[in-house]
Amino acid sequence: MSEKKFTTGADAVAYGAKLARVGVISAYPITPSTHIVEQLATFIANGELDADFIKAEGEHSAMAGCFGACIAGVRTFTATASHGLAYMHEMLSWVAGGRFPVVMAVANRSVGAPWSIWGEHQDAILQRDTGWIQFYVETAQEALDTTIQAFKIAENHTVSTPVMVCLDGFNISHAEEIVEIPDQDKVDNFLPPFSRSVVLDPDNPLIIDVGAMGRLTGVWRFEQIQAMEAAKKVIEDVDKEFGKVFGRSYGGLVDTYKCEDAEVTVVGMGGLACGATRDAVDSMRNNGVRAGMLRLRSFRPFPNELVRQHLAKAKSVVVIDRDFSYGNEGAVYTEVKAALYGLQPCPSITNFIGGLAGADLVAQEVQDITQKALQTASTERTKLIFQYTE
Amino acid sequence: MITKEIATREISPDELLLNTLGCAGCSVVLAARWALKVLGKRTVFAVPACCLASVTIYWPQMAFRIPMVSIPFATTGAVIQGISAAFRHRGITDVNVVGVAGDGGTADIGLASFSQALVSRRKFIYICVDNEAYMNTGVQWSSLTPYGAITATGPVPEVMQERDHNKKDLFGIAIAHNIPYAATACTSYPLDFMEKVSKAANTNGPAFIHVLTPCPTGWGYPEDKTIEIGRLAVESGMWYLCEYQNGKIRFTYRPEKKVPVSEYLSLQSRFRRMKPEHITQLQSMVDKRLAAIEALASLE
Fold it and tell me: Testing the interface with B: which of A206, A210, A215, A216 to mutate, by most B Cβ within 10 A?
């Protein structure tokens, strides 16, 4: 029987990895992700999980340890955040380029300077182009469920691409919620044992990650691009199948809230921004404003078609970014704008940069910005708003 | 115990093809080949950016006939931990897990993961093939470059100062981790090296072999002198053959009569700018280092 627990997002992720029967965990501590691997270490110590824990001397090696275990044929997992994720950067490209289905949780946190342990999305956004699938979850329950889904997506033989499960540092990683822990039997049925043909095996000797240039690298890259494209359908299918088995699904690539008839739609990622937005949407609807929300669950692959489809009818769109691409604008904003390219008529589009380094982001603030964006939709086609400066 | 002496031409290419892209006289390839002769085909190699990877696995010229993975520069220690952990998890006990990295990949950029791997106590063999500079990228200085050697990044001999030091004591760093087995070797002494590989393979835990691999391209000597140069390195005390087991150091070979380092230096163009006072300085460094190891080896 499944059981309900009052627990944190970090614990929920650890339960997800345990239920996925990971064989090797290779990790290095960093706030706010540490509880995830601490909990996994506890499971191992209690005999609840048959896994080997590699205590790496840094995140670069933590990911290298996952890589080593994965090429030796074992399901692997790690968790990190912020500077740890940045420190891993080289390995992220290596793992994705070689198409190794490692799964990693990222408890999103600011990247210094200034030194800040608090939540925002800059750390994962910085790794956008390394070739990892990136999910952003809204609740602890979704963090657990997505961790299980992540293995199934990553290990799909067409996809064969690593997956990052991003959960807002502290807001989700540390906040306690009621979380249903699924049955092991059901998870075992949903997620088959790890299987992979490209492994280090003396009976079938392969040279993995050869030296390659020019044309061969081009072919290799193109396959990576196709795999990411194929992942879109796999993500949708896996989420649907998960829904059938466990009674919970999250919309696959995107999650929508009252956005079918919305004249103004807020786009966001993660728990803090989207939690506040849900309340703001309810409040605006009560005031007669047809507001809605589009939550990007998958940032890579980016669901261009769905974004365009869901936003086509809006007069105005507000994109919340808990990150910034210096010299330009919020990273999610850029992507959403590009997805809307060529639409006639095209909604006005406002970028709200907020919730940086753990700064609160509340419904009233989202509501004020959204209503103003709708009022000025015809005059201000694009606009950048920074929290705390306006 | 290896007892039979065989000629190089009798060595079969079962694990590593004879034609690699290695420079003529390359002893890094020799080290890999001889290690694999001892370890056999049930062996996996993890090799970061270094000469060995560059000359064996550039598509389409695949020289290895065993499972091999190329890995990022700093990760040898971490990747072999991962492979070792995964094999243990899968109950695979008959496969040698071997990391082969260069001097820079071990003593510079890979030092942290090397250290942690030794601390982990997992079962693997780590072989550092030491050609005393970043040869693959065009002879840049590493912390295992000897005092006085010219590299593309220094030192500038004209301003060589006393603070410039001889190569870092990597063997000392390894044994400070109190691992079950560690050794130094040189490809000019193949039986000694292979004996050590055999001991490493039979070690239940981390085993480390630091093998000096003379490099005609980077050191500046004729390519048919690789074996001779390696022997002179040992005969002059510039290098030494010893092993560490059960907490004790012992020499596996001791030159009968020490050759002055100047004789070793004079045969290689990389030392050509050393002035007499530099040579005196290096001789003194070498004497001190050897005396320190002698002292450790004499401990009961």
Answer: A210
pLDDT at B162 over 70: no
Please tell me the predicted confidence (pLDDT) of residue A376: 96
* Residues B1, B8: Cα–Cα separation, whole Å: 19
d(CA A39, CA A7): 12
Chain A residues whose CB is inside 8 A of the B86 CB are 23-24, 52, 68-70, 72-74, 76
Q: What is the DSSP pairing of strand A176-181 with strand A3-8?
A: antiparallel
pTM of the model: 0.97
DSSP state of B116: H
Whether A51 contacts chain B with CB within 8 A = yes
The reply to whether residue A26 touches residue B82, judged by beta carbons under 8 angstroms, is yes
The predicted complex's ipTM stands at 0.96
CB contact under 8 A, B86 and A211: no
Report how far residue A89's alpha carbon sits from residue A85's, in angstroms, rounded to the nearest whole number. 6
- Closest CB to B75 among A23, A50, A61: A61
pLDDT over 70, % of chain A: 100
Domains along the sequence of chain A with CATH: 3-246 (3.40.50.970), 254-386 (3.40.50.920)
Domains of chain B: 11-297 (3.40.50.970)
Q: Which of A60, A204, A211 sits opposite B58 (nearest CB)?
A: A211
Q: Which residues of B touch A73 (CB under 8 A)?
A: 86, 90
Chain B interface, best mutation among A25, A55, A57, by max B CB count within 10 A: A57
Q: Is the pLDDT of residue B2 over 90?
A: no
pLDDT value for B11 = 78
Closest of B260, B110, B97, B178 to residue A57, by C-alpha? B110
Q: Please identify which residue in the block is written with the tokens 């937005």.
A: A277
Q: Is A202 left (phi over 0), alpha (psi -120 to 50) or beta?
A: alpha
Asked if the bond preceding A114 is cis, omega within 30° of 0, the reply is: yes
pLDDT at B180 (0 to 100): 97
